[in-house]
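queue> pop job 88
queue> type: inverse folding (structure -> sequence)
queue> payload:
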């Protein structure tokens, strides 16, 4: 099985070119180091409909195994990534977001303020990460060991307990 991934950066300033995206490339490097093939990257503004379209494109048209978003998960009025994700997923995978918040809480009490969502659309796992590079690295690192197995179960290439 080919482990394909897309990384979407959600940032008004990144989209406008007034801020350099460091979290997206950092996530790409981490995923590539773990054997994921990055087949698509994109920077989007904090516009729910654009985020929804990009998530659907990655899952339905591109058929990627894993979509990781970075940004738009905080308390700002413009932070709408979790809402856009919920609008397109068919089932939530709450343990992933819970594990990321738990890892963040070990670093800072502000970790509880992150609103990441994770879920499934068809054969695609969608995972929201925070927008800061440091937090995105910490969060993906907390769940990365489980993501491959989750995708294998989702795609039917292994059983729930690792049995084929």
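queue> result:
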């Amino acid at each position: 099985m080919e482990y394909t991934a897309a990384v979407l950066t959600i940032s008004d300033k990144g989209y406008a070119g007034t801020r350099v995206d460091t979290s997206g490339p950092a996530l790409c490097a981490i995923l590539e180091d773990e054997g994921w093939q990055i087949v698509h990257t994109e920077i989007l503004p904090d516009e729910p409909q654009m985020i929804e379209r990009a998530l659907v494109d990655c899952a339905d048209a591109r058929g990627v195994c894993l979509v990781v978003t970075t940004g738009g998960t905080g308390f700002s009025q413009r932070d709408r990534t979790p809402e856009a994700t919920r609008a397109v997923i068919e089932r939530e995978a709450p343990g992933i977001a819970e594990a990321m918040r738990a890892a963040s809480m070990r670093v800072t009490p502000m970790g509880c303020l992150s609103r990441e969502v994770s879920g499934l659309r068809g054969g695609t796992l969608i995972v929201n990460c925070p927008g800061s590079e440091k937090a995105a690295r910490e969060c993906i690192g907390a769940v990365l060991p489980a993501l491959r197995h989750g995708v294998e179960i989702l795609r039917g290439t292994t059983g729930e307990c690792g049995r084929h």
